[in-house]
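Just scan my protein:

——
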Amino acid sequence: MKFKIDIEMTPQELRESLGLPDVSGFHEEMLQQIRDRMQAGVEGYDPLTLFKPFMATGVGSLEGFQRLLMNMMSQYSRMGSESDGRESK
């Protein structure tokens, strides 16, 4: 037996029904701080320096993810070349 229920609600209503906090004020405050810093440093604008305090681990985790992908690709290519060597024997 299958039941299908369609519920129509806005994202705000869904967040409220799940008991999630309203972070819109926090979001606006963070955006305003970013805007203020951008306007204050228009002359020597450096986006990486601007966002570094907000995403302290973001850049590091991106580099870690890139290293993970490179390791996976190199292992895959080594596995492929080893299997080619085995087949030719």
